[in-house]
Amino acid sequence: MCKSFSAQRSLHASPSALGGARAVRSPRGARQVAAATGQAAAPPTTMPSYKLYYFPLPGRGEVARLCCAVGGLELEEVRFPFDQWPKYKAIAPFGQCPFLEVDGTFLAQSAAIDRYLAAEAGLVPKDAFQAALADQAYNLCIDILTPLFDTFKVKDEAERIKAREAVVAGPLKEKLGYAETLVAKAGDGFVAGPELTYGDLHLFHALSTIISGWMDGVPKTALDGFPALQAHRNRVASVPQVKAFYEREDNQDDMRQAYKPNA
Amino acid sequence: MCKSFSAQRSLHASPSALGGARAVRSPRGARQVAAATGQAAAPPTTMPSYKLYYFPLPGRGEVARLCCAVGGLELEEVRFPFDQWPKYKAIAPFGQCPFLEVDGTFLAQSAAIDRYLAAEAGLVPKDAFQAALADQAYNLCIDILTPLFDTFKVKDEAERIKAREAVVAGPLKEKLGYAETLVAKAGDGFVAGPELTYGDLHLFHALSTIISGWMDGVPKTALDGFPALQAHRNRVASVPQVKAFYEREDNQDDMRQAYKPNA
């Protein structure tokens, strides 16, 4: 039921001080149609510029970064320290981060950003049901990570660790069990079929976060007993573009050591 | 990066006692390719059967139902009372509902179900960025509803109402403010352009839930001061297929009275 999109481009126009907007839209869709119909390809135009605003940690920005790394999309990153958040919050569409700037237009919500970049990167299956399986895994990972991330709201350290231990023993164990079944049935494949999707990248990120030791109360051994998940994590970590991403100089923080193969 | 999907069809095969699996896959994708390339259309085959398992209330099942109603997809529903949940939890892929059965295969996660059915119903924009805007609105609605739904965990009634009042005055007001800005800028259009998308259906559902009086502590007047949201809600409620959905005999519960135009 959707025809044009130009009317929406001004919804979140970014302040020019934060980067110049490009007027030319990605020819990606046009090229795909041209290829499918055998028509002449659209004339070459400027590819969109993608600019991600987030903290330096993996958190809710890592899947977007990985989609770009795997798909060969050029991603400009603004990684700002926590004390600069008020400055960026003022321009964040929904007062949250990450947010993405695409040719001068802002896009909020990590799930929307991740899926958009995944589509641009060729990491969303063309088949509707297969895409749904990738979405299913992606959203299961939200259920895996959210209770852990929520513990950051607990100010007292002892209480926070206690809360995390309860998450690990309860909901986390349950959700990881579902993920284990999903991945075990996929065999040597991925969560939505034989090819890597953004659902796998989110699972890889969730599992690596869990074993990173970044959150006191979540032991590095939390994946023991989930052999299919460990194998899946290693399989994704070994994808050449993923491996190269964690060899980059700006990804050498302590936490991201857990994102490497056999971490 | 995705080629085939047949290997994944057995991931969540449903027990035969709950409904026979159909062996024939939707020809939708094949037909679209055929149309785009000018090839002869695929021979007619059985369309997929969609079966949604959820409680009778709107909750996390309503967007899926609305996508089917608006897109003219036949949706079989298993609306079961709360006391039957243990029976269905045993077959739910991730121990959660709603879940969807597609030709005998289960799909979990409401966000994956909604987007899948929206795609089948033609309610996901073809343009990648416009689809991202629909996703952005869809996910903002998760942020709007989740803190309210979370209050059901508070067992003491007085405490629960107090928790909801805090949500209404704080995060809900903030999130509705972002939604108001989004919709106001869209003018007479919708959240991702001139055409209705599943992002609009989620927003309609979230706003209707809020004014339903279903949750003690959330006043029916909670949308006062958000004129663009009220207009958007009425616009979606007035879409003929939406209107017809709420005229159906099985949708005459008290809560759904708030889903009608000018409710």
Automatic annotation (TrEMBL), chains A, B:
<feature type="domain" description="GST N-terminal">
    <location>
        <begin position="48"/>
        <end position="125"/>
    </location>
</feature>
<feature type="domain" description="GST C-terminal">
    <location>
        <begin position="127"/>
        <end position="262"/>
    </location>
</feature>
<dbReference type="GO" id="GO:0004364">
    <property type="term" value="F:glutathione transferase activity"/>
</dbReference>
<dbReference type="InterPro" id="IPR004045">
    <property type="entry name" value="Glutathione_S-Trfase_N"/>
</dbReference>
<dbReference type="InterPro" id="IPR036282">
    <property type="entry name" value="Glutathione-S-Trfase_C_sf"/>
</dbReference>
<protein>
    <recommendedName>
        <fullName>Glutathione S-transferase</fullName>
    </recommendedName>
</protein>
<dbReference type="InterPro" id="IPR036249">
    <property type="entry name" value="Thioredoxin-like_sf"/>
</dbReference>
<dbReference type="InterPro" id="IPR040079">
    <property type="entry name" value="Glutathione_S-Trfase"/>
</dbReference>
<dbReference type="GO" id="GO:0006749">
    <property type="term" value="P:glutathione metabolic process"/>
</dbReference>
<dbReference type="Pfam" id="PF02798">
    <property type="entry name" value="GST_N"/>
</dbReference>
<dbReference type="InterPro" id="IPR050213">
    <property type="entry name" value="GST_superfamily"/>
</dbReference>
<dbReference type="InterPro" id="IPR010987">
    <property type="entry name" value="Glutathione-S-Trfase_C-like"/>
</dbReference>
<dbReference type="Pfam" id="PF14497">
    <property type="entry name" value="GST_C_3"/>
</dbReference>
<dbReference type="InterPro" id="IPR004046">
    <property type="entry name" value="GST_C"/>
</dbReference>
